[in-house]
């Protein structure tokens, strides 16, 4: 068997288990209260703007919490969207594996 294939497979398994550990309820409960709420909302799978998250959770601005979650290793992605009247905003989401 090819050792490169084994290494890649091992890496994928380790990466998967690391991600599972990040998303465990125990790991999430150790985050700050607001960070945990933001993460749980994003884990539902929707692409949400900062305004969507703020309204859903009753917080003023979730972008700082998103930044902090990224620094802790949570793979929160974003994409720019062109809105009406020349506005732009980001949608935040967690990619499904």
Describe the protein in words.
By secondary structure, the chain is of the alpha+beta class. The chain has a single domain, classed as Winged helix-like DNA-binding domain superfamily/Winged helix DNA-binding domain (Arc Repressor Mutant, subunit A, Orthogonal Bundle), CATH 1.10.10.10. Helix content is 55%, strand content 16%. It has five helices and three strands; from the N terminus they run αααβααββ. The chain has helices spanning 3-23, 25-29, 33-42, 50-57, 63-71; strands at residues 48-49, 76-82, 88-94. Strands 1-3-2 form a three-stranded antiparallel beta sheet. β2 and β3 form a beta hairpin. α3 crosses α5. It is globular, with a radius of gyration of 16 Å. The chain starts with a helix and ends with a strand.
CATH class: Mainly Alpha
Which structural class fits the helix and strand makeup? alpha+beta
Strand content: 15-25%
Strand order of the largest sheet: 1-3-2
Number of helices: 5
State the distance separating the first and last CA atoms: 26 Å
Fraction of residues in H or I helices: 40-55%
List low-confidence stretches: 1-15
